Amino acid sequence: MIDKSIYTILKHLSAHSYAVQLELFLLLFFTGWFTENLVSRGTGKRKWVHAFFNLKFFIVDAVPQALMGLFFIQIIHWNQVHHFGLIYTLPSGSSPALLFIVAFLVLDLGEYVYHVTMHKVNFLWGFHAIHHSDRKVDVSTVFREHPMESIIRNCFALWWVFLSGATFWIFFIHLMAQTFFVLFTHARIRLPKRFNKMAGLIFVTPNIHQVHHHYKQPYTDRNYGDILCIWDRLFGTFGILPYKEIKLELII
Questions:
Q1: Of 6, 85, 106, 201, which residue is 20 to 30 A from 239 by alpha carbon distance?
Q2: pLDDT at 70
Q3: Domain segments of the chain: what residues?
Q4: What are 117's strand-pairing partners?
Q5: Which residues on neighbouring strands pair with residue 203, listed in sequence order?
Q6: Count of CB atoms within 10 A of residue 3's CB?
């Protein structure tokens, strides 16, 4: 049984999930923004202009994001009522930790599949190329997403939530972790080599993801992961490139 206080918190988050995600997103964005500024010792007018240009995409995306959030709540509720999804096939009495790990892995694998698909299907690449067209990748690049891609991404995520049977709290934790990682890995910061080597065995780091934004192939088709880089290692799409050789721009 879930403690009553925890249930109350989850119920509140379910009703206000988009607002909570937005608040966390903005908090993490400004944290990344100021960290970048400290590392680069100042912002500069061009950095502000660049950020405000990318912010326009975020504003346009807000409406479809909010609408799609309603579908997630309905799918999760349907799964719970009908006990549908992968986690419901696990042995009765399985620990919450096991349910969480299984569903979390399925959701994260789904993000990897979605990202690969956006690169490999020409029609979809036309939308995703907007994100890669940023000539100065930084934390604000996360804003740079075509509204149609926002809808497609959420449709993929809905499918994986449906298949996994993820409960709201599992979905919410994955969503918050994803929000942190996409902002963190786009920020113009670098982790120390030793720490990056250790963390990069499992998690996506800025050092790893920025290879994906290198201006030419084959690196643009490497390191698709959002949170975990185990999928790239498992499916042969992992790649490394010395930092000095990475050019975070794409000529199209």
A1: 106
A2: 79
A3: 4-245
A4: none
A5: 228
A6: 8
Q: List, for residues 16-68, the tens digit of each pLDDT value.
A: 555 666 666 666 676 766 666 666 545 567 777 888 888 888 888 877 777 78
**What residue has token string 């400290």?**
38
- Short-list 12, 231, 15, 7, CA closest to 106: 231
Token pair belonging to 236: 């042969």
pTM (2 d.p.): 0.86
- Average pLDDT estimate for 223-238: 96
The answer to whether 183 and 227 are in contact (CB under 8 A) is no
The C-alpha atoms of residue 89 and residue 171 are separated, in whole angstroms, by 18
What separation in angstroms does the CA of 167 have from each of 96, 156, 186?
11, 17, 29
What does the pLDDT read at residue 252?
Answer: 40
Distance of CA 93 to the CA centre of its chain: 31
Which residue type, as a one-letter code, is found at position 236? G
Amino acid at 226: D
Secondary structure of the chain in HEC code, one letter for each residue: CCCHHHHHHHHHHHHCHHHHHHHHHHHHHHHHHHHHHHHHCCCCHHHHHHHHHHHHHHHHHHHHHHHHHHHHHHHHHHHHHHCCCHHHHCCCCCCHHHHHHHHHHHHHHHHHHHHHHHHHCHHHHHHHHHHHCCCCCCHHHHHCCCHHHHHHHHHHHHHHHHHHCCCHHHHHHHHHHHHHHHHHHHCCCCCCHHHHHHHCCCECCHHHHHHHCCCCCCHHHCCCCCCECHHHHHHCCCCCCCHHHCCCCCCC
Q: What is the mean pLDDT of the chain?
A: 84
pLDDT per residue as tens digits for the range 70-98: 788 889 989 999 999 999 999 988 899 99
| Token pair for 89 | 């096939």
